[in-house]
Amino acid sequence: MEWKPGMIVSLKVARKADFGYFLTTEKENSEDVLLHKRQVTSPIEIGDTVEVFLFHDHQERLAATMEKPIVSLGKFDWLEVVSINERDGVFLYNGIARDLFLSMDDLGPDRSLWPKVGDKVPVSLIYDKKGRLMGRLLRGTPIEETAEKAPKTILNENVTGSIYSFAEKGVFVMTEEGYIAFLHFNEANEELHLGKVITGRVTFVRDDGKINISLQPKAHERRHDDADKIYEFLLKRDGGMPYTDNSDPIIIKQKFDMSKGAFKRAIGKLLKEGKIYQKDGWTYKKE
């Protein structure tokens, strides 16, 4: 069997050097692999068989470590971003001294959507054109096969999870419970990027156990917030403003950052509470 980086194999300690040990399969014409002394995690002797993870060192030589990787060939897991190269991609901690590279080819050209240091993303191991080990961002089937089916009782509950994929109309999130959630861009109220941890309210549970979530407050909570914003605006203008529920929706969006529908609902709430009145195209605070 050909030895490749990313494999976990059992090799025999053939000989010792000042800088570490050389490992072998004892097969004819097999190449010894260096286990540097910094990669030895427990005492070993010549003749011992040790389980090691194979990787390329900084000089692109095949090397071994007794440290346990988080991800090996054929597996996937969520790895933490430890550094970012704005030109090429990000580096991930895989449980060993050599960080794993995730290319911009996987991340996309928009740097604002890349994960930040400390974020986690799901990856497996692949080889580049030169046979070097690197990460591959996972989406779709591999994630779905490991997901849990959300119960109908979770409707309107809050869930927390990490964004792992962008789609045309929103993002996919893996929750802490293992559910796959979809967040439509219209239901977001903050910037989004891969690996970002968000908490949202479950708005729909599909028959296949996937869920939809929203970062927006419920309608009555939103109406309360919008009403407060309008009332504060009135106070800052000495109790009067040239805007009513008949004002142009573009102007409402510019002035209050809300839709005309949301503005009318908030105005209606303030009118019902007796806090405001309207006259001649103006809205006034009641004394």
UniProtKB/TrEMBL annotation:
Pfam families: CvfB_1st, CvfB_2nd, S1_2, WHD_CvfB. Transmembrane segments: none annotated. Residues 156-216 form the S1 motif domain. Gene3D superfamilies: Nucleic acid-binding proteins, Winged helix-like DNA-binding domain superfamily/Winged helix DNA-binding domain. InterPro entries: CvfB_fam, CvfB_S1_2nd, CvfB_S1_3rd, CvfB_S1_st, CvfB_WH, NA-bd_OB-fold, S1_domain, WH-like_DNA-bd_sf. One of its GO terms (molecular function) is nucleic acid binding. Belongs to the CvfB family. This is S1 motif domain-containing protein. It comes from Anaerobacillus alkaliphilus. The lineage of its organism: Bacteria, Bacillati, Bacillota, Bacilli, Bacillales.
